[in-house]
Amino acid sequence: MATAEGPSDPISEFRSWELEKLASSTRAANEGLFEGILEAAPDAIVIVDSRGRIRIVNPQAEQLFGYSRDELIGKSVELLVPDSAREFHAEHRARFVQDPQMRPMGVGLDLKARRKDGSEIPVEISLSPLRTAQGPLVISVVRDVTDRREWEDMLAQRTAELEQSNDELQQFAYVASHDLQEPLRMVVSFLQLLKRRYAGKLDQEADEYIQFAVEGGTRMQLLIEDLLRYSRVGSRELFLSEVDFNEIVDQVLAELGPTIEETGATVSRAVLPVVVADPVEMARLFQNLLANAIKYYGEEAPRVRVDADRLAGAWAFSVRDNGIGIPPDQFDRIFRVFQRLHSQAEYPGTGIGLAICKRIVERHGGRIWVDSIPGKGSTFRFTLPTGED
Fold it and tell me: Of 97, 103, 186, 233, which one's alpha carbon is 20 to 30 angstroms from that of 123?
């Protein structure tokens, strides 16, 4: 017989019981998963309620702050904030609760956390709001960045020391080179005077000695002049403007006219772009590259080609020749100061020209390299940024 409350339906009651059991099982599984995530997280996690009371912490938080879980649960999160920032932290926390938005790790000011022993450690903190049936919560992920900050500080110190050392070395090279010019000029002048006055009046051996001294002094003058040029590239301020590279290359070729005529060289160029750069430095760059392309030739007369291609965010220039080429294991060496692959008798020079080119290109934000096959020629390439995205 049915009661006043209505007929009983065993099937419905069974289904309700099964649904409740399933929901309970799902909640238990989710809670287990959540606890597993907290336990496995690499960073400290502190979850607080809208009043700033700590509700949940993981083992990493206990280890980081030096408190046990029982010492943290129910306490104000300001317990973990340095005294100097505690008052402001409460205000920031209140504003975050009013307008909760996820803040990724590393965003914000230089933050520190306070440990149980009173020591302070640099940290990064990410905040994520979480709405629950018991009210809003804030998940704080705290990462100890002590080691990283120490490395950053050490790197900054080393960088500053290196910059100072480079500046001092550059200044020394400039001053030394400048101060050496005058006495060396006098030595070479007197040696040349001796050569003119006493040529043929002494024995052949004496004439050879004087000749060796004159050649050595003259070479030293060239080295000092090139060293000064190299120093000026780093110390001289860049004066950027729109540079027509057709005019730059034509100007350099006009200056190299006697050398081109003497060697029978053929030099051609494509239509080159206008790029923002320092015109003086660009002229020096092409002077070195084109002079080398003409100088280092083999049995055939030099053939040189200048091209430019547009890349993403940069122009890529190339100076290609049919010269003697460069072994692959020497590609990096040739851009260092005073590095030469040939004797002075074979090809005169100081070994500074390509080092100057490298410094010029890098000061403009580009890079320079070479592709070459011995006996087949070389192609020197460099990039210059366009200044566009």
Answer: 97
